[in-house]
């Protein structure tokens, strides 16, 4: 498995991955607009020095993706000003269970540390048990639960 920085040449596959993420998350959130929607500006992320977009290649095929993005901490009561926000985590179904997600996260952790960051955060739907287990497997802990009510 090769983990590498994404390029603009990868955009067609990455845009398909984005739709795969949306399809997976749609059952967890009834407030998502009808298709077509987009979560990310992947071209801008690939070009940004404040975002690291990675892909995992297996036998020449892009099997997974993920990014870490530097975000400013809006809350002055924490002991850090910036952190890395993890997103765009997707693995093709044929490659799940083979450590792809873990390998991408490990490289993103290294990138975040190289940026002088001491924390990585992410969001995951409460009922997405598979994703929660995958994130816990690489060391993430639940800290806060967001609660919402539709009016």
Automatic annotation (TrEMBL):
Any Pfam family matching the protein: Acetyltransf_1
GO cellular component: ribosome
Domain annotation N-acetyltransferase: ranges: 1-151
Keywords: Acyltransferase, Ribonucleoprotein, Ribosomal protein, Transferase
Listed GO MF terms: acyltransferase activity, transferring groups other than amino-acyl groups
Database matches in InterPro entries: Acyl_CoA_acyltransferase, Bact_Acetyltransf, GNAT_dom
PROSITE patterns in the record: GNAT
Protein name: Ribosomal protein S18 acetylase RimI
């Amino acid at each position: 498995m090769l983990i590498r920085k994404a390029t603009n040449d990868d955009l067609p596959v990455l845009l398909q991955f984005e739709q795969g993420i949306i399809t997976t998350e749609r059952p967890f959130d009834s407030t998502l607009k009808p298709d077509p929607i987009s979560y990310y500006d992947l071209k801008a992320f690939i070009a940004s020095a404040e975002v690291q977009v990675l892909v995992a290649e297996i036998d020449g095929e892009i099997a997974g993706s993920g990014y870490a993005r530097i975000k400013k901490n809006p809350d002055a009561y924490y002991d850090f000003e910036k952190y890395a926000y993890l997103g765009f985590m997707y693995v093709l179904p044929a490659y799940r269970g083979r450590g792809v997600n873990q390998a991408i996260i490990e490289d993103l952790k290294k990138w975040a540390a190289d940026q002088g960051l001491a924390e990585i955060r992410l969001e995951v739907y409460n009922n997405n048990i598979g994703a929660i287990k995958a994130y816990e497997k690489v060391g993430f802990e639940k800290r806060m639960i967001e609660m919402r009510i539709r009016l």
